[in-house]
Task: inverse folding
């Protein structure tokens, strides 16, 4: 049987691509009976090229491998069964025919006997035919009635019998008839025999097992192709040397001859090939099927990932003789999977970051709240504290004995310290919360340096030299927030003083190249017609103090941090100062850095961009300056351009010598030391001169501080004439007018003025104010806004109109009858300060719009009254 | 009166003041007022406050009459009186009275008569409270001044 099958297979070589596990053909593939689904398959065209098979190997396989042989034997058994069935059928048919033949032969014999009997009867005695007939009939009856047609004939015979039974003619006829019947019967028999032979022949022809098998195979093959036609799979079989014996690949890139009989390594080159080969070998050796994902990186088909399944194939003896191999391309899936993994990872990271952020936000919120709290508290503390300090200040002006004075001075200094601290905290929170606004005002850097050094020297309790060097290229005037710059400088200087026990503290000021020219360019682009050019001014504050260890430098600018815990204990302070300085400098667009060496000193450096006012503008300005400070200019003309200042404690030594608290012996020693190299002593007048000058610059500075309130500032010009005239007249005291309707407020204000050593006229409403202004000249008017009869705004407007036009026409229109005066000169502009109960900005706007110069929020305090006087009565300080 | 008594009086005064500050009845302006008091005018604060009370009682009467006048709703006059009361209150540092005045003025501006009535009642109550407390304060102060007049240096040393 097997040989036969093998032959069949060879016959089928051209079309078969039957895989090794042929036993699955019946079950796993579920092939349907031909004809039922033939139509379906007829529409499909199969390309049979992709599969390449080594048939010899297939034969071998079927011969030697367990599966192959069982598969074959199954097919053969199937065929055998069919053949047997056919044989049985044929045999039955044969039997039938034989029986029929037998019947006919019997009949023929009977008929012959009948004829012989007829002949006999015909020649001799006559017997009653009926008996014979009966006998004949009886014998006839014994003949097996197989066929109905025969029986029918018999009946007709009987019928005929009844008609004329005894005639010779009848019998002759009957014999003839039977003869005919016999003939036809024989004929039929012959036909049947022929048919039988034919059938047998056909049977033999039809039942070729090869055809059957090949049809089954073909169908399965078609189905396989149908299923696999677009699948990205490669199916193959490799022998135990891992040479390909069969491969199915729908998208082949190599010809048959390139694959069959070769190993993976021989066919492909690149990454993954070796791995797959090794894996196959492993499966081959272990005899256990396995799956693996392998990424190939070959020249032939690029980078692709395959999931390969390899199972061993055993021979009947149980030896592995090869592997079945199936690979599916899963490059996209792997990519997706990797993408998913990456996404998942990212999500995890994101989540972690989110929680981190939430934590940070939470902490920040807490911090903000704490800071807010601190700011609020500081603010709350500041008000009563300023009360305490003011009271102490007032107390110090009263008659006290020496001990009391000393106690009071301690109280004042402590109070100032706390106030400074609270101001620091408030400043700090202001900068942090972005509330801090910077002003842009013109100022003279040299003066600022001088003033700062002077102030520092004034409060110096150690023997130190304070020096200021300003390079010549630093402009005389620049624009910036002078108050903040002063704050920074003061902070840095006081810091330097705090940590320096002997030596020098130096300020160097010089112009440097633009550290970020692009920034400037951008800026210039934004403001194309800017009148100013920007200079970067660097300021070094250098001391010869204890220095800062390197590891502390990083935390130096952090809030509330000092270089070390023991430093904090030894030197005190909040550690906020530098943080504020840094913030302020950065707020102004600059940088603050520090370099230091322990025991040799530190240098704090900050670089700030400053705009330089255009020449025309500064001309205008200097005009004013010269007017204001004629005396100032004559006194130290070179001071404007002088680049060197030096102060030391000795200058103010007389002030402190009475104190007796300082280390006196050291003072003297230093004095001697300093005397020699210095060679120049700053006379005490210098400081007072500075004061004078500063009060002047101060007030001009304030003029410029409100550049937005243009109308006032423009009209403010006459103020300088005012100053100069007063300087001319010399001793006249400024006349102050208070316009206030309420008794209590009048009382308080009067009392305050008394403490400030100023006399003051009081009127109760706007009309009275007009009359008072009409009567005599005032240097300053404090004007309540809400008053009966005529409010402060209207009164101010009328006064301004009078100043402008020199007549009281408008006042008359308003119902106030005043006589016009003959003017001696153009009227000067009186500063009018509003006093408002509600400090809302709109009312401030209203005040400015009506020609007021400034406003004080009620309740009026000694402090803001004093400030106001300082600002608007230039002679106030000197009085 | 012993020096101990003087200390106690001073403590009482401070305590009362701090209570008033704490309650927000007074603000630092009152301290300003106290600063303004010196030898040349030893009773400055009490003088000012007395005038304040005198004036304010007039204002309050006016306010009440204006509000009770059913036919007329003169918010201009109301506003003037309130402004005056507000100004003087802030001048002596009567913070709470001042704040209620502000609220009152808002009510006037909104033409809300019932809110005005409520505000007036609160204002009167606040005013009485302030008056009582300040009287108390001045009483203690008077006692203290009487005591201090003799023992001032000694007390200072003990402190």
Result:
């Amino acid at each position: 049987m097997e040989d036969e099958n093998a032959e069949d297979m060879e016959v089928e070589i051209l079309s078969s691509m039957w895989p090794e596990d042929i036993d699955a053909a019946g079950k796993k593939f579920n092939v349907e009976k031909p004809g039922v689904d033939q139509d379906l398959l007829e529409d499909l065209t199969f390309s049979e090229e992709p599969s390449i098979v080594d048939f010899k190997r297939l034969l071998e396989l079927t011969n030697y491998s367990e599966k192959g042989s069982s598969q074959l034997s199954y097919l053969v058994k199937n065929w055998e069964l069919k053949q047997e069935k056919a044989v049985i059928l044929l045999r039955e048919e044969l039997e039938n025919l034989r029986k029929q033949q037998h019947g006919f032969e019997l009949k023929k014999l009977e008929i012959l006997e009948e004829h012989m009997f007829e002949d006999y009867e015909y020649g001799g005695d006559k017997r009653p035919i009926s008996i014979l007939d009966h006998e004949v009939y009886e014998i006839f009856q014994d003949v097996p009635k197989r066929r109905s047609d025969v029986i029918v004939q018999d009946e007709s015979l009987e019928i005929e019998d009844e008609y004329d039974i005894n005639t010779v003619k009848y019998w002759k006829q009957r014999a003839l008839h039977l003869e005919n019947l016999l003939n036809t019967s024989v004929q039929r028999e012959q036909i049947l025999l022929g048919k039988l032979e034919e059938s047998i022949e056909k049977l033999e022809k039809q039942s070729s097992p090869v055809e059957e098998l090949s049809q089954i195979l073909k169908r399965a093959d078609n189905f396989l192709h149908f299923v696999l036609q677009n699948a990205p799979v490669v199916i193959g079989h490799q022998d135990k040397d891992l040479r390909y014996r069969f491969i199915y690949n729908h998208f082949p890139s190599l010809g048959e001859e390139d694959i069959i009989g070769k190993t993976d390594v021989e066919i492909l080159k690149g990454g993954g090939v070796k791995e797959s080969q090794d894996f196959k070998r492993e499966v081959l050796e272990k005899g256990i099927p396995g799956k693996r994902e392998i990424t190939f990186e070959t020249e032939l088909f690029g980078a692709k990932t395959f999931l390969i399944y390899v199972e061993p194939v055993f021979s009947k003896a149980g030896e592995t003789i090869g592997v079945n191999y199936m690979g599916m391309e899963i490059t996209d899936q792997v990519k997706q999977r990797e993408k998913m993994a990456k996404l998942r990872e990212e999500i995890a990271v994101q989540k972690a970051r989110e929680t981190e952020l939430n934590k940070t936000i939470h902490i920040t919120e807490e911090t903000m709240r704490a800071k807010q709290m601190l700011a609020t508290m500081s603010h709350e503390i500041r008000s009563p504290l300023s009360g305490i300090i003011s009271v102490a200040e007032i107390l110090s002006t009263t008659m006290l004995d020496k001990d009391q004075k000393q106690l009071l001075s301690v109280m004042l200094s402590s109070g100032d310290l706390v106030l400074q601290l609270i101001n620091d905290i408030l400043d700090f929170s202001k900068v942090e919360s972005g509330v801090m606004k910077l002003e842009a005002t013109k100022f003279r850097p040299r003066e600022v340096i001088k003033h700062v050094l002077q102030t520092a020297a004034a409060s110096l309790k150690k023997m130190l030299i304070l020096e200021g060097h300003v390079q010549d290229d630093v402009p005389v005037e620049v624009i910036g927030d002078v108050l903040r710059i002063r704050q920074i400088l003061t902070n840095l200087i006081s810091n330097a003083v705090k940590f320096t026990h002997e030596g020098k503290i130096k300020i160097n000021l010089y112009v440097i190249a633009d550290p970020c020219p692009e920034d400037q360019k951008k800026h210039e682009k934004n403001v194309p017609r800017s009148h100013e050019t920007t200079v970067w001014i660097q300021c070094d504050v250098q001391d010869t103090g204890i220095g800062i260890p390197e590891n502390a430098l990083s935390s130096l600018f952090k809030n509330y941090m000092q270089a070390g815990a023991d430093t904090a204990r030894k030197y005190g302070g909040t550690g906020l100062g530098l943080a504020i300085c840094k913030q302020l400098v950065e707020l102004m667009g600059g940088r603050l850095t520090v370099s230091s060496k322990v025991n040799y000193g530190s240098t704090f450096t900050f670089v700030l961009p400053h705009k330089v006012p255009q020449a025309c503008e500064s001309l205008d300005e200097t005009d004013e300056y010269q007017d204001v400070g004629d005396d100032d200019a004559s006194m130290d003309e070179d001071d404007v351009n002088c680049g060197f200042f030096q102060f030391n404690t000795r200058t103010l030594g007389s002030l402190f010598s009475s104190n007796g608290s300082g280390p006196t012996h050291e003072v003297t020693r230093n004095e001697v030391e300093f005397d020699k190299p210095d060679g120049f002593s700053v006379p005490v007048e210098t400081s007072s001169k500075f004061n004078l000058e500063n009060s002047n610059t101060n007030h001009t500075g304030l003029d410029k501080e409100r550049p937005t309130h243009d109308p006032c500032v423009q009209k403010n010009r006459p103020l300088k004439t005012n100053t100069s005239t007063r300087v001319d007249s010399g001793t006249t005291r400024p006349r102050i007018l208070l316009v206030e309707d309420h008794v209590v407020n009048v009382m308080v204000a009067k009392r305050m003025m008394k403490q400030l050593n100023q006399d003051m006229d009081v009127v109760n409403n706007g009309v009275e104010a007009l009359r008072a202004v009409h009567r005599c000249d005032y240097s300053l008017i404090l004007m309540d806004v809400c008053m009966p009869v005529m409010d402060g705004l209207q009164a101010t407007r009328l006064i301004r109109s009078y100043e402008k036009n020199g007549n009281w026409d408008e006042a008359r229109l308003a119902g106030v009858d005043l006589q016009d005066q003959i003017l001696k000169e153009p009227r000067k502009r009186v500063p009018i300060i509003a006093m408002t109960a509600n400090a809302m900005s709109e009312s401030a706007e209203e005040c400015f719009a009506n020609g007021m110069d400034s406003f004080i929020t009620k309740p009026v305090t000694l402090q803001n009254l004093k400030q106001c006087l300082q600002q608007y009565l230039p002679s106030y300080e000197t009085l | 009166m012993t020096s101990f008594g003087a200390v106690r009086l001073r403590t009482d005064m401070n305590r009362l003041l701090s209570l008033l500050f704490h309650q927000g009845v007074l603000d630092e302006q009152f301290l300003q007022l106290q600063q303004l008091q010196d030898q040349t005018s030893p009773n400055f604060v009490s003088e000012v406050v007395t005038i304040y009370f005198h004036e304010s009682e007039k204002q309050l009467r006016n306010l009440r009459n204006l509000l009770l006048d059913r036919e007329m709703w003169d918010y201009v006059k109301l506003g003037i009186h309130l402004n005056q009361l507000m100004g003087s209150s802030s001048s002596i540092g009567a913070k709470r009275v001042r704040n209620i005045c502000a609220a009152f003025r808002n009510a006037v501006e909104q033409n809300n008569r019932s809110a005005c009535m409520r505000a007036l009642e609160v204002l009167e109550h606040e005013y009485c409270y302030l008056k009582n407390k300040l009287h108390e304060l001045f009483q203690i102060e008077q006692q203290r001044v009487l005591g201090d007049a003799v023992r001032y240096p000694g007390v200072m040393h003990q402190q």
Summary: Residues 152-159 of chain B have pLDDT under 50 and may be disordered.
